[in-house]
Amino acid sequence: MKTTSLYVPTLALDPEKILKRFLRYASIGTPSDRHLSETQTPSTESQWKLIRLLEQEIMDMGVPSVEVTEHGFLIARIPPYISTLRKKNDMAVPVVAFIAHVDTASDVPGDPVRPMIHRNYDGKRIVLSSGIEIDPVNQPRLSQYIGDTIITSDGTTLLGADDKAGVAALVTALEYLMQHPEVEHGGLEFIFTPDEETGRGMERFPLDRVQAKVAYTLDGDGEGTVEYECFNAYRVVVQCKGVGTHLGYARGKLVNAVTMAASFVSFLPRSESPEATDGRFGYYCPLEINGNITEAKVEIFLRDYEMEEIKRRLQTLESIAKAIEGIFPGGKVTLISEKQYLNMRDAFAQNPQIVQYLDEAIRATGIEPVHTSIRGGTDGARLTELGIPTPNMFAGGSNFHSLTEWVPLSAMVRATEVVIHLVQLWAKG
Ligand SMILES: [Zn+2]
Fold first, then answer.
1. Which among 33, 68, 346, 354 has the fewest CB atoms less than 10 Å away?
2. Which of 319, 341, 363 is the last residue of a domain?
3. What's the CA-to-centroid distance between 266 and ligand 1, angstroms?
4. Structural domain boundaries, residue 363
5. Which pTM does this prediction carry?
6. What radius of gyration, in Å, describes the C-alpha atoms of the chain?
7. Cα of 163 to ligand 1 centre, how many Å?
């Protein structure tokens, strides 16, 4: 039979089965909702649909322990298997968790997703049904996949390979382990999480139900990617209080909170915005502004790899607040800041084997790991803070959060293999 994936798996995985599985998950549009996430997890009903499907599929595989929490966290557990010869070391193998998220971003439409399969990719531009094109000139990574099967959406929605590719890889790895009881591993937890994209899902993470001492998220992009450094993230709400009066008699009395909020935003340095920075430079990003004449609110995200820079930006916001109060006498500006997540890199300096094993597992599939820093956060950053160091590895997709998202089948196959190699490396110790 002709293989449809460039990468020839070493573990007898069936690429066509992974493809079908991915299409099944991607076809269930699961955008999460940032506003609804403040009051409920999962924020959207569609995420439940996928969680229930996964629960059924995993139970059908005979996985001995499958649990869904009230907030939609699906945990599938496999007890350790270490051959009798080595049994005395059993206790030394830590429980390892693997995590992928079921929701998709809401930056572009995410439902209904109609995936397109481009078999035997010819290296040229990929034209989607909507007329949108994916051009290898802007997507140099595409040229690595000539002859492969590429999956995209029809161009009217995102594809949701972020993170359905990760979900498909994890379910396939789970299935492989159930079918190959001879493979040695410690205790394993496969966790499927809601509302990653809203940044709020982790607030409901069932820490008391999880035994893992180390975890890996499959939520990265290109093949080989290993990420264990992310931004420090703060959210600041700027509350502007004005003084309302009858507009016809407002001279000298009205203090307009809408104008105050707009002025506040205009003082943010444009050179430190997401659109003006890359690499290791952090930023301020005004995310949302709303209100009326008497009261207006601005929501601002602060991001940086270095905590010192976050502190400097917080001080700058304080200074802007004072300046606005000076320009608008009688008006009041209050800042409420909240930590969202922290750079996780220090946890891995203390436990270097967590990344070393991942590197080794990637090399076992024939490629070199690529270490990069995330210009954002991951669920792993939150878990690391909670005491479970969690680096992020690739799931294989590209152009996340856009209508031109794409994923090569071979990358999903490789991600699956990395997981299977990784559990064995931890068992070997
Ligand atoms: Zn993701």
1. 346
2. 341
3. 31
4. 15-230+343-428
5. 0.86
6. 24
7. 5
